[in-house]
Input
Amino acid sequence: MTVHTPLRSIDALIAQGLIAPDRRAALDAVAARYAVAVTPAMAALIDPADPTDPIARQFIPDPAELVTLPQELADPIGDEPHSPVEGVVHRYPDRALLKLVHACPVYCRFCFRREMVGPGGDALTGEKLDAALAYLAGHPEIWEVIMTGGDPLILSARRMREIARRLSAISHIKVARWHTRVPIVDPERITPDFARALRVPGKASYIAVHANHPREFSAAARAALARLADAGHVLISQSVLLRGVNADVATLSALMRAFVENRVKPYYLHHPDLAPGTAQFRLSLEEGQALVKSLRGHLSGLCQPTYILDIPGGAGKIPVGPAFLSACEMPGAEAFAEDRHGEQHRYPPA
Output
C-alpha cells in the first residue's frame, strides 16, 4: 500500500505494515504522551523486516520512551530561562532563536523538545510575532537570527516571505538561518518558489539541514537540497549521534560524505540531549569522541563535523571532540601530536 499522507497514529503505522498489530497496546501509551508523525518519504525508506532499521528507530515509537531517568529533563537545554518574550530564546549575545511554530512534519523519538512540540501547537502569529520581532529589533547586539521550532519550513511560502520581509527591515541582523528536517523528510515541499521564499533580502542566508543516516538522502531529498543551494542558500548540517542509527565509523563516514556530495557542509554532530525517555539513544562521551576521532585523517576535511554537547540547564554548547595534542599544558613545555595512525610526534615549544 502506498502512503500519500503522513502517518500520525499507531493504527496508521500498523495499517502501513510498519508495526506489528500485537504491539498496539504498548505503543498506544507512547503515542498518548509523545507526538507521532512519519512522512511518506520516510515511511518508504523503512524496511519493516529489519528490527534494527535505522530509519524506523528514529521515527517509530518504542515502549522504552516511557522510561524516564532521574537525570532527564523536560527542558534539557534550558530554553525557558532564556526566553524574554514568547518565541524568542536569547542565550548568546550575538544571536537569538525565533521559534515560529511548535509542530513538525515528523516527530523524532530522540527530540530534545519532545515535551513542547506536537500537533496543534500554536504558531507565532499576530501580536506574539510582533512582540518577538520587536525584541529582535530592540537588541542591536543580535547579529544572527535562527528560525526554528518545531520545523519552520512547514509554514507556507507566503508566511515565509512575510517573515523574511520583516527580518530584512532590521538593519543590525546580518545573518538569517533556518533549521529544518523538511528537505530530507518531505522533499517535494521544497519547490523552486519555496526555496526563493526563504531568502531574507540583504542578509546572508543559511539553512541547517538535519539528517542522521545516509539512507535519508533519497533522490527526492538530493533534488530538494539542490534547489535550495541553487537558490543561493548556504547549506550546513546538523546530526545527532544516535546509538543504533549512526554510532559506527562506516555509517557516520557515509553520512558526512552524503552531506558534502549534496553541497551541505557538516557543521554540528550533537551528543544526544537529556530529554525524557531517550536513554536508549545515548552513548558515552568517550564513545562519541572515539568515533569522531576516527573520522580525522580518513575523511576529507570538508566532512568533519564539530562534536557538540549542549550543557544541561541552559549553559550553552561546547565542543567535546577528541584531543590530538598532549603534554602541552605547561608554558614552554614540549607537545606531543597524535597522527591518524595513533603515532605520537614531538612538537617543540614556542
